[in-house]
Amino acid sequence: MDAVVKVFCVHMEPNFSLPWQRKRQYSSSSSGFVIEGRRVLTNAHSVEYYTQVKLKKRGSDTKYLAIVLAIGTECDIGKNSSFSCCTSKYSCR
């Protein structure tokens, strides 16, 4: 279960009828799991139209800022870089 993380995302959808404006911000949470290279795999709809993504490990209160590396909407997969702030459990860059 240490490979499972909670993904917190702030979204802001574009307004396609008025492209110079954006719609209201909203937040969501989902789950993801750690894969090779300190990366996290989650669903694409979890990080769609993201403005900020944070990750939280099981049993921890600390949220780590993540960088979205790729979003595959066709297969509903999103890949985030893992923890930007290291702990002893994960190797630091």
UniProtKB/TrEMBL annotation:
GO MF term set: serine-type endopeptidase activity
SUPFAM superfamilies noted in UniProt: Trypsin-like serine proteases
InterPro entries: Peptidase_S1_PA, Peptidase_S1_PA_chymotrypsin
Name the record gives this protein: Peptidase S1 domain-containing protein
Organism for this UniProt entry: Salix dunnii
Taxonomic classification: Eukaryota, Viridiplantae, Streptophyta, Embryophyta, Tracheophyta
